[in-house]
TrEMBL record:
Residues 242-260 have a biased composition (Gly residues). This is Tetratricopeptide repeat protein. It holds the Pfam family Sel1. Keywords: Membrane, Signal, Transmembrane, Transmembrane helix. It comes from Derxia gummosa DSM 723. The keyword Signal applies.
Length: 269
């Protein structure tokens, strides 16, 4: 699967899994029409629905149907589709299933199995998904979520993901914080170090020997020029509006149009 859908879909899965309530009684197959077969066993209704995906072998389209089933609340179908796709080696399904196992959506929470799936996806070599899985697996190692805590190993997995171009991994290595995962309040993973935060907030030093008074005077002059320009533009706009209103009034008198006279009255007012 391509890299861009990997990041977009996984970000949506993680955030929605954390923020959306699980439907108490979700409708099976998301309310789609039931699949019907002809005498030869071939579908005579759309074979793109969730029920059809359950009956078909794993493919990118089938795995994506599992994602759709999850978003509309059909957790039973989603897990069945994910399991089939995982057995066929689809790394995206491994990550989607892992995120649901972490949250306990549709099944009992199972952090250990979730983390094992994340590592499997991280080692899959799948374009795009393997890189994203490295970030999630590294995060699990950093916290000891479903696996023994190992910050050194976590940093190594973050480094691998960063080497593959993942911006969240690079951000974590730089600051100790990333937003590939968010909690229910929208906060990202980890806490940025005070040193980095201090660098971000540190004022820029004024070059030695540079007097402050001329700089302030220059800024004041720029503000004055900007204000004069704004005043001139407003004055020109008012003149143009007044001229248009006069022409509209004249045209209204010649043609007897009530709308133009009304416009002219509004301008004069």
């Amino acid at each position: 699967m391509p890299p861009i859908p990997a990041r977009a879909l996984l970000a949506g899965t993680a955030l929605l899994a954390a923020l959306l309530p699980v439907p108490a009684r979700a409708e099976r197959f998301c309310g789609q029409p039931r699949m019907q077969l002809d005498a030869n066993g071939e579908p005579i209704t759309s074979d793109l629905g969730i029920e059809a995906a359950l009956a078909r072998p794993a493919s990118m389209q089938v795995c994506a149907s599992g994602y759709f089933a999850e978003k509309c609340g059909d957790h039973e179908s989603a897990h069945l589709i994910y399991d089939k796709c995982i057995a066929a080696g689809y790394a995206g399904a491994m990550i989607w299933k892992a995120l649901l196992l972490e949250q306990g959506i549709g099944v009992a929470p199972d952090p250990a199995r979730a983390t094992a799936l994340l590592r499997q996806a991280a080692e899959s070599g799948s374009d795009g998904y393997a890189t994203v899985a490295k970030v999630h697996y590294a995060s699990a190692l950093q916290l000891g979520r479903g696996v023994a805590r190992d910050e050194a190993a976590a940093r190594e997995w973050f480094r691998r993901a960063a080497d593959e171009g993942d911006p969240d991994a690079a951000e974590f290595l730089r600051t100790g914080h990333h937003t590939a995962e968010r909690d229910v309040t929208g906060r990202g993973f980890g806490v940025a170090t005070e040193a980095v935060e201090g660098q971000r907030l540190a004022p820029v030093a004024r070059p030695a020997g540079m007097p402050l008074a001329p700089t302030a005077a220059m800024l004041a002059a720029l503000v004055a020029v900007a204000g004069a320009g704004a005043w001139w533009q407003a004055r020109r706009g008012a003149r143009a509006a007044a001229g248009g209103g006069s022409r509209g009034a004249a045209g209204g008198g010649a043609g007897g149009g009530g709308t133009r006279n009304g416009d002219a009255r509004e301008v004069r007012a």
